[in-house]
Amino acid sequence: MKRYAPQPAARGFTLLELVAVLLIVAIASVPLFSLFSQAGIGLLGDERIQTATQLAQERAETLLAIRRNRGYADAEVSTNLVENLTGDYAGYTRTTTITPFAGAACPGTAVCKQVAVSVDQAGQPRAAVTFVLVDY
After folding, report:
1. Distance in angstroms (rounded) separating the CA atoms of residues 24 and 72
2. Is 0.85 surpassed by the pTM of this model?
């Protein structure tokens, strides 16, 4: 008759070991969750900067289109135009400032104006565009 050697009992993880591993994983994951929240805050700030940049660009392109289609004199707005935007852009303030410009960038006898468009959101400056209009 053949004798079989007793098989060692299959050993798995105990409930205590599993709970200990879960506790360690939970503690280690807390810093990861704070990283995700910081990333979300950063994305929101980036979105506000992008929106402000688009608003400044929109105003600059409008003035350039007026200059191109109707002439240099019509591109004049108030020397300090402040717009409190509404709708989707509530909380944003766009300021357009036009001042006479004389410098190396103004060619020969041409008349030049410097246009500065800045956009603030909740009192914080978010974007600015500056360019020169030239009357040839």
Report:
1. 70
2. no
Q: Hey, how many other C-beta atoms are within 10 angstroms of the C-beta on 23?
A: 10
For residue 134, give the nearest of 92, 91, 103, 94 by alpha carbon.
103
Report how far residue 120's alpha carbon sits from residue 55's, in angstroms, rounded to the nearest whole number. Answer: 10
CA distance 80 to 94: 10
Per residue in 59-111, pLDDT (tens digit) is: 999 888 888 888 877 776 656 889 999 999 999 999 999 888 877 878 888 88
Could you tell me which of 125, 65, 70, 73 has the C-alpha nearest to residue 98?
73
Q: Assess contact for 133 and 110: CB atoms under 8 A.
A: no
